[in-house]
Amino acid sequence: MSRPESVAELTDLLRGGGYLADRGLATAAYVGLRLDRPLLLEGEVGVGKTEIGKTLAEVLGRRLIRLQCYEGIDTHQALYEWDYARQLLQIRALSERSLDDDAAVDALFGPKFLIERPLLDAVRAGDGAVLLVDEVDRADDEFEAFLLELLSEFQITIPELGTVKAERPPLVVLTSNRTRELHDALKRRCLYHWVDYPSAERELEIVLVREPQVTETLARKVVAAVHRLRELDLVKAPGVAETIDWVRTLDAVGVHDPDGLDVEALEDTLGAAIKDRDDLDVVREHLHELARG
C-alpha cells in the first residue's frame, strides 16, 4: 500500500479528510506507518481519538476494521467463532453418510463455518487495513495480555485450519479514555500520544473545516462558550465532538448569527454539549455569562 513520504504530507492528507492533526499527533501516526508500530492514543472523551483512526483509513485508501472493547470481551468475540448452527445442520447431513473421523472433522471445521471477528479479519487484511481497537481500557487484564501477544506477532493459530500470518501488519490505532491504567508492556509495544483539548483557535479551525456552512463569528462564540464550560467542575466536560454537534444543532434550529445565541437558544440546545444531568444544573447557572460571550 502507498504511504505518505513525510509528516507534512500525512498532515495534508488528514486535513483533506476533515481531520486537523497537530504536528505531534501527525508525527506519531507517520512513524507508526513507517515502522509498522501500533499507535496508542489516550485522552479525554471527545477529543478525536477514534476519528483519526477512521480518517487514516479513508485517506490511505485502506479498509477500516473496528474492534469496540467492552467489559467482559473475550478472545472468541475478537478473533473468530464457529458457526454452530450451520455445523449442527452439517452433522445431520453427515449422519446419513459413512465418513471416517478425520473426514468428519474436516467436513465440520472448514473455512465456510468460520465466522471472522475483527482481529482475524485484520490479520488477513494486513497492510490493506487500519485496525481501530477502541476503548481498550474497558477490556480486562487477560484480554489486554492477549492483545499484546497479537500485536507482537500478527499471527493467529486456528487449531483446525492452521496459522494465519500477516505479511505486513495493518496500521493499528488503540484508544483509551483512561478508565483504568493500561499495563506498561502494552504501552512499550506502542507509540504513545496524549490527545489533549485543542486551543480555542485550533478548535475554531476544526469546526469550520467540519461545518463550513456556519459563520466564523457564530463558531467562534460557541468555541468560546465550550472553553468556559471546560473550566467548570463538570462530570463530563464537552469535547471537540460536542463543540461540532452544538454548532450543527444551532445551525439546524436557525441560529446563524452570534447575536441570536442568547440565553434561550443556549438553554434549548444545551443537550448537544452537556450529557450529564448534574452538569446541566451547573451549566444553567452560567448561561447569562455564556450568552454575553
Write the layout of secondary structure elements.
Layout: H1 7-16, H2 23-35, E1 39-43, H3 49-60, E2 63-68, H4 75-78, E3 80-82, H5 84-94, H6 101-108, E4 114-116, H7 118-125, E5 129-134, H8 141-153, E6 155-158, E7 162-165, E8 171-176, H9 184-189, E9 191-195, H10 200-210, H11 216-229, H12 240-252, H13 263-269, H14 277-284, H15 287-292
Helix pairs in contact: 1-2, 10-11, 10-12
Task: Produce a short descriptive summary.
With 293 residues, the protein is an alpha/beta fold. It has helices at 7-16, 23-35, 49-60, 75-78, 84-94, 101-108, 118-125, 141-153, 184-189, 200-210, 216-229, 240-252, 263-269, 277-284, 287-292; strands spanning 39-43, 63-68, 80-82, 114-116, 129-134, 155-158, 162-165, 171-176, 191-195.
Descriptive report:
With 293 residues, the protein is α/β, with parallel strands linked by helices. The chain folds into three domains: 7-72 and 123-195, Rossmann fold (3-Layer(aba) Sandwich); 81-111, no CATH class; 200-284. The chain has 15 helices and nine strands. It has helices at residues 7-16, 23-35, 49-60, 75-78, 84-94, 101-108, 118-125, 141-153, 184-189, 200-210, 216-229, 240-252, 263-269, 277-284, 287-292, and strands at 39-43, 63-68, 80-82, 114-116, 129-134, 155-158, 162-165, 171-176, 191-195. The strands form three sheets. It has a five-stranded parallel beta sheet with strand order 2-5-8-1-9, with helices on both faces. A two-stranded antiparallel ribbon has the order 3-4. The chain has a two-stranded antiparallel ribbon with strand order 6-7. The chain is elongated and about 80 Å long. It starts with 6 loop residues before the first helix and ends with a helix. The mean pLDDT is 90.
